[in-house]
Amino acid sequence: MSGTSAGTLFGYGTYLTPNFSKADHYTDTDRRNGVRLGKTAKRTVIITRAALGAPHVMSEGDTMMRIPPPYTADGYPYDSVFAMGSVDFDIIGAVDYSEIVIGEKYQLLPSFLVEYRHLDGCL
């Protein structure tokens, strides 16, 4: 869940990315104890399906936002947040690669657990 170790640039929720190298970036540190892993340590990434519903699209971060803004006239929020990455969309954005923020567990369906190690000498 966001806000516990990596931040809340796009609100509270589970942060996902369609870019594996971005997910790999978050495997550098053991989140349980803050210890940085060795280069060839075992890493784990979860591949999941996500129901985005009506996503709120953003190109800039908003650290004050906790949930997506209202989507309907009666105040119901958007179902998710899609943060446009500058590399993915050739824009100047808050993040290099796109991120998706899901606020509810029922929107996620974990499908695969990928365990891997970087080769010695891997950048």
Describe this structure in words.
With 123 residues, the protein is mostly beta strands. It has one domain (14-116): Alpha-Beta Complex (Phosphoenolpyruvate Carboxykinase, domain 3), CATH 3.90.228.10. Helices cover 8% and strands 26% of the residues. It has 2 helices and 6 strands; from the N terminus they run E-H-E-E-E-H-E-E. The chain has helices at residues 20-25, 86-89; strands spanning 14-16, 43-50, 55-58, 80-83, 99-102, 108-116.
Report the C-alpha radius of gyration, rounded: 16 Å
Q: What structural category characterises the helix and strand content?
A: mainly beta
Percent strand equals: 25-35%
Mean pLDDT: 87
Second-tier CATH architecture? Alpha-Beta Complex
Assembly level: single chain
**Which residues sit in consecutive blocks of at least 5 with pLDDT less than 50?**
none
Number of helices: 2
What is the molecular shape? globular
Give a summary of the structure in a few sentences.
The protein has helices at 20-25, 86-89; strands at residues 14-16, 43-50, 55-58, 80-83, 99-102, 108-116.
From the structure above, extract its key features:
123 residues; 4-stranded mixed beta sheet; 8% helix; 2 helices; mainly beta; Phosphoenolpyruvate Carboxykinase, domain 3; two-stranded antiparallel sheet; globular
